[in-house]
Design goal:
Blueprint (H helix, E strand, L loop, with lengths): L2 H11 L4 E6 L5 E5 L2 H11 L14 H11 L3 E3 L2 E4 L13 E3 L12 H10 L8 E5 L5 H8 L4 E5 L3 H13 L6 E4 L13 E7 L2 H11 L3 E13 L3 H10 L3 E8 L2 E8 L1
Parallel strand pairs: 4-5, 6-7, 6-9, 7-8, 9-10
Antiparallel strand pairs: 1-2, 3-4, 10-12, 11-12
Helix pairs in contact: 4-5, 7-8
Length: 266
């Protein structure tokens, strides 16, 4: 399979209970699931692709951990390097290095949509800013914002495991005092009683379209919005939804089939 088709298959697996993905030679992929039922459901879903070869096998928790650690290394995006603890540059836990401890559900920020968000984060003024990270997951974007000078970062997610992982990672990077993690929906985020200079939302295209109207009330004057997690064929619909909600497109970037966009609100 070529790289573009791999990206499309990964998008197709979204929502199928994947806990980790390992890239193999020749653009093959191995997906890991915590239950046999989730694995069987995903295989049945993908068998609609007539020429797709699928096989299943049982992997122990210990083997999963070893495989995941072997497959994950450091990645550099601009001035930032994201790495699991075992792949971090020796003695390099300074401003440019972010340590992310992978868990069964949350990786180290190597996905194209995360890299695109990290690029855009480095293009907006963050010194002293208030930042909202919607769907924080491992907390990698929240931590990056703090490392890039944000005075206050709020990360929201509905997954308690995500918030636990994000809290651990904030501690690993020494930014716990500047990151406030909350189990909140985007609508409930209004209860925070404040607006934000930068909002990051690495979500699905459908989620961004549905929630577009809830982002603007959280924005301070001249705020920046960074969105990703959607495919190129969804781009027009996502951009239209956000522009209809009062945002102005400033820039966009793509990697393979994934897109990120930067908006401003006056």
């Amino acid at each position: 399979m070529d790289a573009e088709r791999v990206d499309l298959l990964l998008a197709d697996l979204d929502g199928c209970g994947v806990t980790a993905v390992e890239e193999l030679p020749d653009h093959a992929i191995r997906a890991f699931f915590t239950t046999t039922e989730a694995r069987t459901g995903a295989a049945d879903h993908l068998r609609s692709h007539a020429d797709l070869a699928i096989s299943a096998s049982e992997i122990s928790d210990e083997d999963w951990g070893a495989r995941s650690q072997a497959a994950i290394g450091a990645v550099t995006v601009g001035a930032l390097t994201i790495a699991p603890p075992w792949a971090a540059p020796s003695g390099a836990r300074g401003a440019g290095v972010i340590i992310i401890q992978p868990s069964m559900g949350f990786g180290t920020g190597h996905h194209a949509s995360t890299r695109l968000c990290l690029e855009h984060l480095q293009s907006v003024p963050l010194k002293g800013a208030r930042v909202l990270d919607v769907g924080t997951g491992s907390g990698v974007l929240a931590i990056a914002a703090a490392r890039l000078g944000a005075a206050e970062v709020v990360g929201i997610d509905l997954d308690a495991d995500a918030l636990s992982n994000a809290s651990e990672n904030a501690g690993l990077n020494g930014v716990s005092e500047r990151i406030d993690l909350r189990e909140l929906t985007l609508v409930d985020a209004r209860s925070l009683g404040r607006t934000f200079d930068v909002i990051v939302a690495n979500l699905t295209g459908g989620h961004l379209r549905r929630e577009a109207s809830h982002l603007a009330p959280l924005a301070a004057p001249n705020a920046h919005l960074i969105v990703s997690g959607f495919q190129a064929d969804e781009s027009n619909d996502v951009i239209h939804a956000l522009e209809s909600a009062g945002w102005t497109l400033s820039a966009s970037a793509a990697e393979a089939t994934w897109v990120a966009a930067l908006f401003t609100r006056l």
